[in-house]
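Bug #77: duplicate submission created two jobs. Keeping one. Sequence:
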Amino acid sequence: MVEVKKKLTVSKEDYLKAIWSLSEREAAGKAEAGTNDLASMLQVSPPAVSKMLKQMERQSLVAHVPYYGVRLTEKGRAAALKVVRRHRLLELFLTEVLKYDSHSVHDEAERLEHHISEEFERRIDELLDFPETCPHGSYIPRSA
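Kept job's structure:
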């Protein structure tokens, strides 16, 4: 039987990216993101975060320990890095090719990152000569 890959929702991709971002900012060795920090970053209530994390845990995207935090599983980290990669490639594409101001590209990339195909992502990467950093200086994760 062929496994059908279920596309993640925009909300789940945003959560994955936020968890990854919070985890990356923490001191070395700490891979958890706090529920309240996620609620603040995503501008949702803590109960909404808890509800979403339960759904994501059932999909094996996160490991959640109530009152402690959440960490990405291997599957969740791979999905988060894919979204981060697309976001940063889009920011660079928007500034370098479409001449967007570097201060305004984040919001545009935020909207687009959830909707481009792997082929479109690959073509942007190739067109930009396989860049390593986005316009803000952050590294662009390589595709898996």
